[in-house]
Amino acid sequence: MHIRHVLITFLKYYQQKRGLIIHAWCLMPSHLHMVISSRNGESLSAIMRDFKKHCNKKLIEEIKLIQ
């Protein structure tokens, strides 16, 4: 799986399961920019903490497969 697909998969999951609203986003070669809000009032810092934790694990696995 390409790294960009990992990010997109996680973004879709967090939209559906955690109420993340993505108003705008831009995937750069080394990072991601987003303008976001929460549909269900959950703290954005909690959503992003979990997103980074789980997404980073999967990204590391994918990078190891490439090398």
Automatic annotation (TrEMBL):
GO MF, any single term? DNA binding
Concerning Pfam families, the annotation shows: Y1_Tnp
| InterPro entries with a match to the protein in the record | Transposase_17, Transposase_17_sf
Single GO BP term: DNA transposition
Q: Where is the Transposase IS200-like domain?
A: 3-64
Q: What is this protein called?
A: Transposase
**Originating species:** Fulvivirga sediminis
